[in-house]
Automatic annotation (TrEMBL):
Keyword Membrane: yes
G-protein coupled receptors family 1 profile domain mapped to chain residues: 42-305
Pfam families according to UniProt: 7tm_1
Name this polypeptide is given: G-protein coupled receptors family 1 profile domain-containing protein
InterPro entries, A to Z: GPCR_Rhodpsn (IPR000276), GPCR_Rhodpsn_7TM (IPR017452)
Transmembrane segments: 26-51, 63-85, 97-122, 143-167, 187-211, 248-266, 286-308
Localization (cell): Cell membrane
């Protein structure tokens, strides 16, 4: 099957006789373009900030944030730009190979994001509940191993639909995905197993860790307020070193809530499609809105860091100032080259 037949035939089938109008495609293209642009620029800022500024590199847990930003950046470039192309063409114009690749990449990156959020919660749990053991428990080597595991699990689960050829382009999700209606019996066990290991278990761990973190952080705050003047200075300095990292808990908790807010509609539509008969299809625009909200999850994290974390906000400002100064210098240099000074005047006196 060539790429044209693959994209056109499937878009008409999944559209159930209804296709988007040109006006609708233009509107959704503009919305998605804004989301993609913000996701690319924002996540690049996060990655550059951590590797450029030593005070961000010193906090090992920021490696998880870098991994999350790399995941979001990859989603925006590979998945979201492909979906933007489908809005413009109103079909899947990139061929079957890229369709399979995008689908695998999408599921892989979603799993990596979820597992990274889970490991971030574990990191914050150890930092707040066991601050004096944190340097020995959470080392850079262990963090890197956990990051590698997120990608291993993501790749492992994303390759299965490719091997079994479950993938087709979904016109209303504007993305290549598993054909749940056609592959329900074969994919059911995969969905259950993936849901348990990639979402339910990490979600339970995440919920437990943050509940404990918030409880302990509140108790520590009250205790430090009551005993501030009576605490030994050595104890206070060592305790502050790790208790100050609890300031990042608020932003990370908001990141988690934003992720679930954006991904819940997408997950619910998937569960509906795999569990409900094809004769009761999901309304078209529910699938479309669910995909757009899922894409937004890759764009909101840099905004959250900039709003709630002073260290990242400071890094953002420095990077912006450097960009502005560099552009000013280049503009000044260009203006100087376009209007060279006249060095030889031949003036005749009357």
């Amino acid at each position: 099957m060539n790429s044209l037949n693959f994209s056109t035939n499937y878009s008409n089938e999944t559209g159930t006789g209804n296709l988007r109008t040109l006006h609708e495609n233009v509107i959704w293209s503009v919305i998605l373009f804004v989301v993609v642009l913000e996701a690319i620029i924002g996540n690049l800022f996060v990655i550059i900030s951590v590797f450029r500024f030593s005070y961000l590199r010193e906090e090992i847990s920021n490696l998880f944030i870098v991994n999350l930003s790399i995941t979001d950046l990859s989603t925006s470039i590979v998945v979201m730009l492909s979906s933007l192309g489908t809005f413009i063409a109103d079909v899947w114009p990139f061929g079957k190979f890229w369709c399979y690749f995008v689908c695998a990449a999408n599921y892989c990156l979603i799993i990596v994001s979820m597992m990274t959020l889970c490991f971030i919660s574990i990191d914050r749990y150890v930092a707040i509940v066991y601050p004096f053991y944190y340097p020995n428990k959470i080392t850079k080597k262990r963090v890197i191993c956990m990051i590698f595991y997120t990608w291993f699990q993501g790749i492992l689960f994303s390759i299965i639909p490719v091997l079994y050829h479950w993938i087709e382009f979904d016109y209303w999700e504007v993305i290549c995905a598993i054909s749940w209606y056609k592959e329900r019996e074969q994919a059911l066990y995969y969905v259950i197993f993936a849901f348990l290991l990639c979402f339910l278990l990490p979600g339970l761990v995440l919920a437990y860790c943050y509940c404990r973190v918030l409880t302990i952080a509140h108790q520590q705050h009250r205790r430090h307020q009551e005993q501030r003047n009576n605490i030994n200075s050595v104890y206070n300095s060592s305790s502050t070193k790790y208790s100050t990292s609890s300031k990042a808990v608020k932003s990370l908790l908001i990141v988690v809530l934003a992720y679930f807010l954006c991904m819940t509609p997408f997950s619910c539509t998937k569960l509906y499609k795999v569990s409900v008969d094809e004769e009761k299809p999901l309304p078209n625009y529910m699938s479309l809105l669910a995909s757009i909200m899922a894409f937004c999850s890759s764009a909101v994290n840099p905004l959250i860091y900039g709003i709630f974390r002073k260290d990242f906000r400071h890094a953002y400002k420095k990077i912006w100032m450097q960009i502005i100064r560099r552009n000013s210098v280049e503009a000044s240099s260009t203006s100087h080259n376009n209007f060279p000074l006249v060095t030889n005047y031949n003036i005749q006196q009357p």
